[in-house]
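tl;dr need the bound structure. longer version: we got a ligand (magnesium ion) that a collaborator sent over and nobodys looked at where it sits. i said id run it. heres the input, straight from their email, havent touched it
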Amino acid sequence: MNILLCNGKGGTGKTTLTVLLAHALAEAGKKVAVLDRDPQGTATKWLNECESKKVIISGLLTCQES
Ligand SMILES: Nc1ncnc2c1ncn2[C@@H]1O[C@H](COP(=O)(O)OP(=O)(O)O)[C@@H](O)[C@H]1O
Ligand SMILES: [Mg+2]
């Protein structure tokens, strides 16, 4: 299952919902990978700092605008 969270407006809770949803699904036994397409990389940062390593984070952090 692919879940896409997007909204053109900032501060609407995309990152928060992504991280919490990923954790909830991982805790429920699902294999979860988060693809972070936001150059800010906040989801990647939060998930990397998290003690639980159940969520695979694939940050396209290198997709910096040039
Ligand atoms: N359900 C919520 N209730 C209250 N505050 C929230 C909620 N979801 C997110 N926030 C807060 O709103 C701010 C923006 O959330 P964030 O997930 O970073 O938004 P986005 O990724 O869309 O820019 C953060 O300070 C976050 O803690
Ligand atoms: Mg965000």
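gonna send this back to them w/ a short note. Strands lie at 32-36, 55-59.
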